[in-house]
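Reagents: none. Just compute today. Heat-inducible transcription repressor HrcA.
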Amino acid sequence: MNDATNLLDELNDRSREVFRRVVEGYLETGDPIGSRTLTRTLSEKVSAATIRNVMQDLEYLGLLNSPHVSAGRIPTQVGLRMFVDGLLEVGDLQDTDRQMLDDTVKRNSNDVGNMLDRLGSALSGVTHGASLVLTPKHEADIRHIEFVSLAHDRALVVIVFSDGHVENRLFTPPPGQTPSSMREAANFLNALIEGRTLSEVRKSIQTDINARRQEIDRLARDMVESGLAVWEGEGEETDRLIVRGRANLLGGEDDGEELERIRSLFDDLERKRDIEEFLQLTEEGEGVRIFIGSENKLFSLSGSSLVVSPYMNADRKIIGAVGVIGPTRLNYGRIVPIVDYTAQLVGRLISDRS
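Predicted 3D structure written out:
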């Protein structure tokens, strides 16, 4: 990033304007920009031959690339990074975009997960890209745990948090469980959990079970362990990635190779590979960050860009992230304020609920 900024400082005014016009034209149309097109838009009146020489110099520096022999130029990944860091003009959030996001939040819901799901869909609709919302883990103190038998091989564990939030999971109980052992398991846990969060209970539960082995029989102990394990699986809803707008990335692609790259990206997302990386991406500072192509390993194969921002709880702790995926020729100036505003909305939503 610093190398790109230093490179920008070395360009003279003419080279900088040519570079900026090429990138802006590419981001708007997706097409290579030729020298004759630039002669009509540059503030300085110069010949097409002069512009071609400047573009060749920019190509030599690794900022532009010519996709075809007779075509104009498009920015390279290094060029896009330099443009984003040094020349990007971020616009104000448009009133229509703000209204759509605000209206989504105003549709009140006690289920934060459903609200974040709807907000992700709204973000996808506003940006015409794919939206990402990494939901937070619920860390309120636990008030009560209950196990409910549904069948010989199906049971429900219900957790009530001190802030009124209720979560439940279906799981397979250990063989031989009885209503009595399920009550024992719940009583054992409820005697331990007061004032503790779920993660704190996880850390101490095995120690307590070992220490109090005489107080809880094998069936109850197995019920406790298998019931809590439901929250540790890969599919837990308390820490999940909501992805909306897949069709927005697939719809305009005709090239088979590009389609396969995008499908590979979504396959990775749906398998939750590197899900925690979304939080790690945002830890170096507050505000919106932009990752282009291979700068983020999750998007290196698809050649996509990610615009991502963290959101925080009432204690100013980063607990999740909001982002938009799109092609490298995203309208960054418009997308950045949208992602920033959405992250603020989510942060307020989480803080209000807690």
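The beta strands are 64-65, 74-75, 130-134, 142-151, 154-161, 166-171, 241-244, 289-292, 304-312, 318-327.
Action item: order primers for follow-up constructs.
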